[in-house]
Amino acid sequence: MPEWLVLTLAMLAVCAVVVTITLVRHRRAADDEDPSETPDVIEYMTMWIGVVYAIVLGLAIAGVWEGRGAAEDHVRAEAVALHEISERVRVYPAETRDRIRDDVDAYVSHVVTTEWRSMADGAGVTEHGTELLDRVRRDVTDYEPRTDFEAQAYQPLVDQVAAADQARSARAESTEETMPGVVWFGLISGAVVTIGMIFALQIRRTPRELVLAGMFSALIAFLLFLIWDFDMPYSRGITASADPFLNLFPHLRT
Fold first, then answer.
1. Which of 3, 36, 77, 233 meets the CB 3.0–4.6 Å disulfide criterion with 71?
2. How many other C-beta atoms are found inside a 10 Å radius of the C-beta of residue 115?
3. Continuous H helices in 91-126
4. Dist. CA 254–CA 118, nearest whole Å
5. CA 250 to CA 193: how far, in whole Å?
6. DSSP state, 89?
7. Cα dihedral angle (224, 229, 233, 236), rounded to 10 degrees?
8. pLDDT confidence of residue 104
9. Which whole number is the average pLDDT over 184-204?
10. Helices 40-88 and 148-173: crossing angle, nearest 10°?
């Protein structure tokens, strides 16, 4: 089921629940009960609960958005490091240069196909990808420079391999959920309490109040869905893209 459809159904379901409970409570209310007579302390508590929950939601959204941005940075850093390796080996003999470039291409091709699907399924990076990157490392580090020009290129190449390995490790760590279970418990519990305060304020009479209550509940459902969607940058909804690899290695698009 598409995630946009899940979001739409969730928002409609929340609205339906809020409106239904409000209408049922209105029918069962006593005839002499005045909804406008809400104690001041309840209004005060509702205001502060709303403010605190809004801050928590904002911090959660900022956290998962930052995590998604970091995931994109890891992909970009890894792709740039591998591209630098392919370019810098041009000073090496043809046999060595072609072998390193072929191994880099094999690794990138594996990442953008097999490994990316594995991350999308929540399984993380693959062992074969690690082996392919180790092969690139051996190609670079085992070569003995024969000229001063090659010697000058050797250390920068080793540094780029280390940068690619570091970026890959960071990318592997970013495949997991960043929001702990206790945070989700707080977010969901806060949503229930915040929406529950709608009934404490006795909003149940006019269509305008029902519409506002439904829209308020749908907004909270949307924000919670947004946090959940960004929580795993490689496998849900708006995911980090493999385009940095494909842009720097266009011959691997086919």
1. 233
2. 26
3. 94-110, 116-120
4. 20
5. 52
6. G
7. 160
8. 94
9. 76
10. 150
List Cα–Cα distances, 211 to 19, 47, 205, 218, in angstroms: 8, 19, 11, 10
Classify residue 112 by its DSSP letter: I
The residue type found at 157 is L
State pLDDT tens for residues 87-126: 999 989 999 999 999 999 999 999 998 998 888 887 888 9
Contact 222, 11 (CB under 8 A): yes
d(Cα 212, Cα 125) in Å, to the nearest integer?
45
Determine the residue type at 244: P
Specify the pLDDT at position 97: 92
CA angle 9/12/14 to nearest 5° reads: 110
How is residue 41 written in tokens?
């302390």
- Give 212 or 32, the one with higher predicted confidence: 212
From CA 221, how far away is CA 214, in angstroms rounded? 11
Structure tokens at 160: 């780029």
- Quote the tokens at residue 193: 């309490």
159-191 residue pLDDT tens: 999 999 999 999 988 887 778 888 888 888 888
